[in-house]
Each structure stands twice: as structure tokens, then as C-alpha cells.
UniProtKB/TrEMBL annotation:
Family per record: Belongs to the class-I pyridoxal-phosphate-dependent aminotransferase family. LL-diaminopimelate aminotransferase subfamily.
Enzyme class: transferase
Associated pathway: Amino-acid biosynthesis; L-lysine biosynthesis via DAP pathway; LL-2,6-diaminopimelate from (S)-tetrahydrodipicolinate (aminotransferase route): step 1/1
Record-annotated membrane-spanning stretches: none
List of residues binding pyridoxal 5'-phosphate: 72, 108-109, 132, 187, 218, 246-248, 257, 292
Role summary: Involved in the synthesis of meso-diaminopimelate (m-DAP or DL-DAP), required for both lysine and peptidoglycan biosynthesis. Catalyzes the direct conversion of tetrahydrodipicolinate to LL-diaminopimelate.
UniProt-recorded name of the protein: LL-diaminopimelate aminotransferase
GO terms (BP aspect): lysine biosynthetic process via diaminopimelate, diaminopimelate-aminotransferase pathway
GO molecular function, one term: pyridoxal phosphate binding
Amino acid sequence: MVRVNSHYQMLRAGYLFPEIQRRIKAFTAKHPEADLIRLGIGDVTEPLPAACRDAMATAVEAMGTRAGFHGYGPEQGYHWLRQAIAQHDYRQRGCDVEADEIFISDGSKCDTSNILDILGDDNRIAVTDPVYPVYVDSNVMAGHTGPADDQGRYGGLQYLPLTADNDFCAPLPATPADLIYLCFPNNPTGTVATRAELQRWVDYARSHEALILFDAAYEAFIRDPELPHSIFEVEGARDCAVEFRSFSKNAGFTGTRCAFTVVPKALTGRTSNGDAVSLWQLWSRRQSTRFNGVGYVVQRGAEAVYSSAGQAQVTRLVTFYMENAAIIRQQLRSLGLAVYGGQHAPYVWVRTPESRSSWQFFDQLLQEAHVVGTPGAGFGAAGEGYLRLSAFNGRAQVEAAMARIARCNLR
Ligand SMILES: *Cc1c(COP(=O)(O)O)cnc(C)c1O
């Protein structure tokens, strides 16, 4: 009989979002009239920018003509899109990134997990706690961890706490790490890293010959012009980092699917004999073997993000969500809650009142306010005692949710 990848058996059975669904279902069965406001999921709510829709409509028409038809495209993505990205996202910010170093994909979720294909199985891995679950689960699936303990911490991974106690600056690994996952602006805490903070990581990675996997899916939400949008804004990062970016959150492409990964040409890793090998070459080989590129129509839609109309529309979208975040922050603060994040990211990370657990506070908001958040403990043991609220919703929903929470008993 066929054998399965038994590492999957070690995954903690898709525990966070199914459990949230289960509690919502139980609640709505009892209170079918309740009008729930979901500030839980990390999905955008507002329509696609007109510039992207127009570009895709034009591309669809072109596909209906012999002259404008496009079959298989380059696996790495069309040059015009990679050129636009290199220019707007990197060179304009003073980063030395070439169009050739950019690989277009159908999502950062895919890329952050697929990257393991080109990395060895014996790397010492560090992740923050709390963490975007994909980084951890993809390593579990690849057999890079031991089983999880009661708190959900997998054996063999080094967890670096990201909490109010350390001002959401994770400590450097206590034992050497070869592979480090960082996400800033951070999901779930909504906090951001300064240039000095990223420099500290790059310096560590260079002195330990480690690789940083830097997830910048939320860079568009940064408001402070002093904060870096890319790890490549930091000295030395080209020697030690890969960066993941996505059109999902800035341009609302969660259902359209387009992202990209930057792999510097000079970046290397070692074979088991100790020879240095180009990661760019490995990733290029991996993508051209296992991936056939993102649809032409979608890449035209992504390119339109960089048109002047597209830039203005994306700025409006991001501003809209960040106004929501500001409303959530202000309202919760005025209720005496400790809130973090939400200034350069669409997530607000709320300390639960009166030492309630993450799930107790989740249940209270569900029962009393009919508001759905995400329990911080679901993102890692150090997320216990926090709840994540997302700014991805309509204005009326956010305002109503805050008014309802204000009526809860938070003592
Ligand atoms: C939403 C999100 C992404 C984007 O994933 P896509 O697959 O591109 O939609 C990447 N990283 C984090 C941490 C995210 O929250």
C-alpha cells in the first residue's frame, strides 16, 4: 500500500481557525439572530482597484485575439512586471535589486513554504513566537521538527518571543540558528521593526552564515517614512536574506493571486561538502521545474498597481484600512485596554483584560459583543493573553464592533 508523508501526522490538527469556526457555529446555533462582525480573518474586504480591473479586462480581451494571445509565460514572471517591481519597490527606495532577482509567484504563502525545497533538512531553525503558522507547519511537513508539546511548541525549533515585555523586539537566537523567519510589519502582532532592529538581524545572520527569510507582505501599511519597507534597505542584507512580498494585502489580490520573491544573485548556501551554491540558481531551477508561472491576465493586473492611477488607488485602500486600525486602537485604549501594533500594520494586538486567557476573551467578545477576533494563543504560546483584531473590514462594521465592545464588562 502507498505510504504517506507521516510528518503530516505531527501537525496539530489545523487547530486555530477550525476551533474558531466551531465556537462561532455553536454560538449562532443558539443565537441565530445575532449579527456577527468578523474582525478575525486576515482577508481584505474592499474591491480591487479600478486600475487593476481595467488592466485585467484589457488583457482578457487581448487573450481573445491571435496577436494578443499568451500561452505559457516565463516561469520567473514577465519581464515588464519584474522591471516595474524593481523600479518602484526597490530602486526608488535606494535598494539595489535587479529585475532578474525577482520571481513572480501565485502567493507568498506558497513561496514561504516552497523555499524549503531548496534548503537542507538539517538547518537549525528559529521562528518568532507568536508566528504566522505557515512557517512552522511547512517545516513540520518537511520533517524538520519533533512533535509538539502541550503549548503547541514543536521540538527542534527555536522560538523567539515577541511580546510586550521585550517591546516586540525578538531576542537573537540563544543557540546558533541557520534559518530565521522574520515578518515585519508583523502578523499577528501588528508591530514593526526599525532599521536598527533589522540591522541587528542582518549582522547576526552574516556572522553566523545564516539565512533570513523576510516576509514583507504588509510593507505598504508602514506610515513612518523612517521605517524600512524592505530588508534590502539594510546594509549587508543582500548577503543573507530572501524577501517575500505579495499583492494580496496592498492591492486586495487575496483572491486574484500574485506575489513575488527576491533572491539576490550573490546569495549562497552550502552543500553537505561545504561548497557554496547560488540560492538564485536553485530557486530558478525549482520554479522552472515545479511551477509554470502566474497567469498573463493576473500579471497585467499586478503591473497596473505601479501605474500612477494604481498607486493612488492602492494608497487610498491602505489608508482606509489604516483609519480602521486607528479607530480600533483609539477605542480600545479609551476602554483602558493595552493595545499594540495597528500603526504600521492592519492588525491590532490587544492585551486581554484582567488576565483572561486568549480564548476566554475571544468567547467574551463573541458572546457579549458578537465580535469575532483571533485568540493570540493560536499563533504560539507567547501569544497567550492577547487577541488579534484585524482592520480589514468596512468602516461601519469597525465602528459598530467598537461600540459593542465598549458595552462589554471588561473588569
Ligand atoms: C497574508 C499574508 C501573506 C500573503 O500571502 P499570499 O499567499 O500572497 O496571499 C504572507 N505572509 C503573511 C504573514 C500574511 O499574513
